[in-house]
């Protein structure tokens, strides 16, 4: 229960809350309940508090009364000041309104004054413009009057004054009256131009019908008209250049072109001069350059004497370039001699050209610089024409000479030993002829991998392992400066691009120290050196000799140009440039040979032979020329052996490489055909099964026939030894494919073994292509010499038809181990014989005794 709170406490709490907003601090008072009986007491407390407050206010008011009266007095005074300020502000506003009205009146008056000034100025300018227009009209009338009476120059001057007056009109230039006057001026100018043009056409008369041009100094019209006045008028009108251009075209059409060029009627027309008239005449009887230059001299003299300098000089800048262009293209260029015999006459023509240039210089004419420059470059032009002519000659020559074939002989002296393979079965000195080829190579090594055989280049020794260091150094040298104009642009012109030059031919190689005859080692004897002369014939076209003929002509021309008769000619400085022609011809040959030879069945072999022939002749030429130059009167820098040697040595390598690439393409093509024939047999698996047995038989037969066909194609082209080497490479490819296919067979039945042995017998008939006669007339089989894997193939044939004991004997007591690896023999034994103790012991013995 809450404790009892007195009415007095409740009244105090109520007053504190009303007066100060304070909440009762006493917990009992705050939570006390206010009964209705306490209300009278609370009202009494509130009433008493209100009375106390009123009394306090009265007391304070009484004490502050004097201050309040002062405040009231100040407030009234402030109110009076505010009223006065408001009245003053109203007066100021009234005065400001009155000032605006005055300003507006002043501005209005000023604008009216300005307008009056503008009107006055406009009226004055209008009056001035009217005066100017009257003056312009007067000027135009005066100009018209002067033009009517023939005073053209005076009329033009008046029109110039009128133009100045028009420009001074300012804003009135767009008015209608000004437009009318300008239109009148334009009509007057047009009339004056027509008059001047008529005068020009009268003074310079061009008759296209009769092909004549007349140049008059003056003509009679209403007044006398002279050419100087007309030229002055055209100059003032700005038309002189167009009239001069038209005159230059008329001169070219009527006189210059017919004289310097052949027309549609294939006739060059002359011209004749009679006083003031130049006219086309009949055909030219003398087509020499001298006569032509004399005619041009007459034409220039005619123009310079009949025309004043004011028109002749500008006319020259248009006419002389035309004359120079037609003279160079139609006369001078065709007159450039193709041989040294015509150089004196050409030198005389150049002197005439320089004479014409000097005459034009004396006249002060322009445009003749092109003629002088052409004379200065005549040596270069002659040299360029020589190169062009040489190339055109070989272009025309190749299609004809490629059909002309002949047999040539190559002779070479070599030192060989009796230990050479050439003497393996015989010590006769004349046995070398059976094995020599164009490169001096005799045989290939009998032991050669499949990869080497695939890339066979035996005809020139590219399968050698060692490349001469000196040749390498020569290949890396830069091309000489003289060859810059003869870049090897034909080096890559073949189906199988090979940018590296092939190795140069090397001396003859011998087969291993123990060459075999019929599978047995030949007796060894102490080698004895002897010098022999090797001779062999092969077929070439006429192209190499034709190229050499042109090269020899070039050398002769160099010598002629430096002779006392021509050494001081304008062409003599070009003599050194002739040495670039051989490289150009050889590059042209390499670039187009494939196309020209393509119609021949043995095209690549002919290319190979021609390249060998060409390189041989070039080498011989350098040797002979070096001897001749020892007594030559030419300066050293112009001697062929000094100047040509670096270029020709590089060209010889390029020609040799080109021929070898052609040979390589042909050999690879034929090898691929042979491999494709044998590929039809599909490894000879099931060669006894019908009908596949027929396919295998056909594969062997077509291979043999193909090699025979190739021999017939090549035997009239290649030398005998080169033919044997090439056929040996093809036979080697066929045998390699056959041996590989047989070795790849994991199981060979007895009937298959017999069938494969029969194939070996058939393939062995290819040895017929390698039958040669020695010095005693005896036939020798050279298949083992020219076919690297021939003895390996023979051993394979024996293995297919032998017992296990025979095979073991071949290995241990024979020379099978020299031809086959132990793994190859073991593989064949495992394929041919069923597993047994005998087979196991034979294999073990073979592995044990195999050569490392």
From TrEMBL:
GO biological process: endoplasmic reticulum to Golgi vesicle-mediated transport; mitotic spindle assembly checkpoint signaling
Pfam families listed in its UniProt record: ZW10_C2
Region described as Disordered: 435-531
Annotated ZW10 C-terminal helical domain residues: 699-846
GO cellular-component term (any): cytoplasm
Polar residues bias locations: 515-531
Coiled-coil intervals: 43-95
Highest taxon in the source lineage: Eukaryota
Biased composition (Basic and acidic residues): 473-482
The protein, known as: ZW10 C-terminal helical domain-containing protein
Originating organism: Alternaria tenuissima
């Amino acid at each position: 229960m809450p404790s009892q709170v007195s009415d007095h406490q409740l009244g105090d709490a109520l007053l504190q809350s009303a007066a100060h907003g304070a909440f009762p601090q006493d917990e009992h008072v705050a939570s006390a309940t206010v009964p209705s009986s306490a209300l009278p007491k609370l009202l009494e407390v509130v009433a008493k508090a209100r009375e106390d407050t009123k009394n306090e206010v009265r007391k304070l008011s009484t004490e502050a009364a004097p201050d309040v009266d002062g405040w009231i007095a100040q407030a009234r005074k402030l109110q009076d000041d505010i009223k006065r300020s408001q009245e003053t502000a109203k007066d100021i506003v009234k005065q400001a309104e009155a000032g605006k009205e005055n300003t507006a009146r002043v501005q209005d008056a000023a604008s009216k004054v300005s307008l009056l000034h503008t009107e006055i100025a406009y009226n004055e300018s209008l009056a001035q413009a009217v005066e100017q227009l009257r003056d312009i009209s007067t000027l135009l009338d005066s100009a018209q009057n002067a033009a009517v009476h023939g005073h053209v120059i005076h009329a033009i001057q008046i029109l110039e004054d009128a133009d100045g007056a028009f420009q001074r009109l300012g804003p009135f230039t767009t008015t209608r009256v000004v437009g009318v006057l300008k239109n009148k001026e334009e009509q007057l100018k047009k009339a004056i131009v027509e008059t001047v043009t008529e005068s020009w056409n009268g003074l310079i008369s061009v008759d296209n019908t009769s092909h004549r041009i007349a140049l008059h100094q003056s003509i009679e019209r209403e007044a006398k008209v002279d050419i100087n006045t007309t030229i002055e008028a055209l100059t003032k009108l700005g038309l002189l250049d167009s009239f001069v251009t038209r005159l230059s075209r008329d001169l070219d059409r009527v006189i210059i072109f017919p004289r310097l060029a052949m027309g549609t009627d294939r006739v060059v027309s002359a011209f004749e001069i009679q006083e003031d008239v130049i006219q086309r005449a009949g055909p030219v009887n003398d087509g020499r350059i001298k006569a032509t230059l004399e005619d041009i001299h007459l034409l220039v003299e005619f123009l310079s004497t009949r025309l004043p300098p004011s028109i002749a000089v500008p006319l020259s800048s248009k006419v002389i370039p035309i004359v120079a262009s037609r003279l160079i293209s139609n006369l001078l260029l065709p007159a450039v001699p193709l041989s040294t015999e015509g150089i004196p006459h050409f030198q005389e023509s150049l002197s005439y050209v320089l004479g014409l240039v000097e005459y034009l210089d004396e006249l002060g004419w322009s445009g003749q610089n092109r003629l002088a420059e052409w004379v200065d470059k005549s040596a270069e032009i002659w040299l360029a024409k020589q190169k062009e002519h040489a190339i055109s000659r070989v272009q025309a020559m190749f299609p004809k000479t490629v059909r002309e074939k002949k047999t040539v002989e190559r002779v070479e002296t070599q030192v060989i030993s009796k230990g050479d393979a050439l003497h393996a079965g015989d010590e006769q000195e004349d046995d070398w002829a059976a094995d020599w080829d164009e490169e001096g190579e005799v045989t290939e090594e009998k032991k050669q991998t499949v990869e080497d055989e695939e890339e066979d280049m035996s005809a020139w020794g590219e399968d050698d392992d060692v490349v001469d260091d000196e040749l390498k150094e020569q290949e890396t040298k830069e091309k000489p400066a003289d060859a810059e104009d003869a870049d090897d642009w034909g080096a890559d012109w073949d189906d199988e691009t090979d940018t590296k030059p092939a190795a140069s031919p090397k001396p003859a190689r011998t087969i291993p120290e123990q060459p075999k005859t019929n599978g047995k080692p030949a007796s060894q004897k102490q080698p004895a050196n002897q010098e022999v002369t090797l001779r062999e014939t092969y077929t070439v076209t006429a192209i190499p000799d034709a190229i050499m003929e042109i090269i020899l002509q070039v050398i002769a021309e160099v010598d002629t140009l430096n002779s006392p008769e021509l050494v001081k000619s304008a062409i003599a400085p070009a003599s050194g440039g002739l040495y670039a022609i051989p490289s150009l011809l050889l590059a042209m040959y390499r670039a187009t040979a494939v196309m020209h030879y393509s119609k021949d069945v043995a095209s690549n072999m002919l290319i190979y032979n021609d390249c060998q022939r060409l390189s041989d002749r070039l080498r011989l030429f350098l040797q002979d020329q070096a001897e001749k130059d020892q007594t030559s009167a030419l300066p050293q820098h112009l001697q062929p052996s000094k100047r040509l040697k670096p270029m020709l040595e590089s060209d010889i390598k390029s020609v040799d490489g080109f021929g070898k690439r052609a040979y390589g393409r042909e050999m690879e093509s034929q090898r691929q055909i042979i491999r494709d024939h044998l590929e039809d047999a599909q490894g000879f698996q099931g060669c006894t099964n019908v009908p596949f047995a027929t396919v295998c038989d056909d594969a062997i037969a077509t291979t043999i026939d193909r090699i025979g066909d190739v021999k017939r194609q090549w035997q009239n082209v290649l030398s005998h030894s080169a033919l044997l080497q090439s056929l040996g490479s093809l036979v080697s490819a066929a045998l390699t494919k056959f041996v590989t296919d047989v070795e790849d067979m994991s199981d060979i039945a007895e009937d298959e073994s017999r069938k494969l042995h029969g194939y070996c017998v058939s393939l062995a008939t290819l040895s017929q292509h390698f039958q040669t006669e020695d010095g005693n007339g005896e036939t020798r089989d050279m298949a083992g010499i020219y076919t690297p894997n021939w003895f390996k193939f023979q051993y394979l044939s024996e293995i297919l038809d032998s017992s296990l004991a025979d095979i073991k004997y071949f290995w241990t007591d024979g020379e099978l181990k020299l031809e086959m690896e132990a793994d190859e023999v073991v593989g064949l034994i495992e394929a041919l014989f069923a597993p047994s103790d005998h087979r196991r012991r034979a294999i073990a013995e073979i592995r044990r005794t195999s050569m490392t």
